[in-house]
Amino acid sequence: MSEPRRVAAIVVAAGRGSRAGEGAPKQYRVLAGQPVLRRSLAALAGHPRVSHVVAVIHPEDTAAFSEAAQGLGALPVRGGETRQDSVRRGLEALADFAPDLVLIHDAARPLLMHDVIDRLLDALAENDGAVPALPVVDSLRTGETHADGEVDRSRLKRVQTPQAFRYAAIRAAHATAAPDATDDVAVALAAGLSVAFVEGDERLAKLTYPTDFARAEALLGAGLVTRVGQGFDVHRFGPGDHVWLCGVKLPHDHGLIGHSDADVGLHALTDALLGAAAMGDIGDHFPPSDPKWRGAPSDQFLVHARDLILARGGIIDHVDVTLICETPKVAPHRDAMRRRVAALLRLSVEGVSIKATTTEKLGFTGRKEGIAAQATASIRLSTVEMK
Length: 387
Hints:
19 strands; alpha/beta; eight-stranded mixed β-sheet; elongated; five-stranded mixed β-sheet
């Protein structure tokens, strides 16, 4: 039985994506709750045959990359002036890992399924390289303003990424390649390598224009079901000079007592998200008996719930928090709270509702003994992960 081959992946993410419209580079734009780059990285890092992933990034994107790649184990590599330069740098960065096989993938193709990766790696048993491809199904004609000829489409393919190669062969090919290759297949062919076609996937279409993002959002949303969760939490007042509510620090003549920072709003919201995903409650994930959570900022809990949902291909649509207290006054801080929660959940501010009410001086909140909060979260989730 042959030894398993070491497989690495390079995600090319150093471009600016100007055709995608105004805003951040397209690989860092949010697609159904996650940065595009994170989806591409996660598809490769989560594949059982891939053991090492590097991302070639623009030097100005270090902070954005750190956030997008958090927890995935992908290592950043500084990109070059062209895509070809960036790939070469990525290949060089893998030298110490010494992979047998390498997958080279464009970050702007985030809907990568595991079966495509398997087909590519299997094809390398008998070929130097492999590339996912789809047939051209539309009629092709030549001409500028009027049709004047027909193109035979029978041998034409639409080529996608990742493109897979035996590592030593493609690294040597890049070292001597002319500077104008259109992709890594062109580099391989110029070096005399054999490159096989494997079946591609329509979902792997590249994000180039704004309309491509709308199409990808629709693909990700297909088959998801809406689920709603509720959360409730209470904390009483104690000594202190501030309280944390929905991620915002408010000056106050008392603090809130709790094992963490006692942010009653974020606690209720975390439970609502976990409830919608049927993933237990905040105490299951962050037990108060564990001293490492003493005084911890509650935004950690909310981000954890967010990431659990996004890791299952879910989408957070809307959250609603009601703070129940006589004091402090919430209205002056409501907008700041909405912005903070929206940033933590990667939602637009319009997707976050925060309200406050009193109990007309009844009960413990009416007696100003503490604060209660209730929250509702609506998400879309599938029980089948994208693999």
